[in-house]
């Protein structure tokens, strides 16, 4: 593929980008921290605080519908999904993890908008706490990089 590399790899310039964040409140102590870290990283990457829209929903299964509403608005260059699903003793963990993940992917593909999926799926509280900082930062970086990439490609 000729000319495939247009200098877009790892472009982490958030200037002029508008980012929407949907945070599940279930396990709020963890998801709230994910949001704080993500928003901090977005601003460090140059996204103006006034261009970050942060909403909350009850749980991970509600994240895709809020993302869809944001994508429908055409106001965002990228979206971020934040949540935390901790395995319990029932099949509910698999249901919530699989369906929320599929919903996030569907919204992204249907609307051609990048979505950084930082809905943690972990075995226990300790695993979640160990991942919050890194995943919050990663979500911000993925959102900015993919917004820039899609802008260059489309």
Characterize the structure shown.
The chain has helices at residues 28-44, 63-73, 92-111, 125-153; strands spanning 19-24, 52-57, 78-86, 115-122. The chain has a four-stranded parallel β-sheet, sandwiched between helices. The chain is built from four helices and four strands; from the N terminus they run βαβαβαβα. With 154 residues, the chain is an alpha/beta fold. Helix 1 (28-44) links the parallel strand 1 and strand 2 (52-57). The protein has one domain: Rossmann fold, CATH 3.40.50.960. It starts with 18 loop residues before the first strand and ends with a helix. Helices cover 50% and strands 19% of the residues.
Q: Major beta sheet, specifics? A: 4 strands, parallel
The tally of structural domains comes to: 1
Shape designation: globular
Q: Please tally the helical runs, counting DSSP H or I stretches of 4 or more residues.
A: 4
Sheet-strand content, in percent, reads 15-25%
Element order, helices and strands?
A: EHEHEHEH
Identify the CATH homologous superfamily. Answer: Lumazine/riboflavin synthase
Strand-pairing-aware structural class: alpha/beta
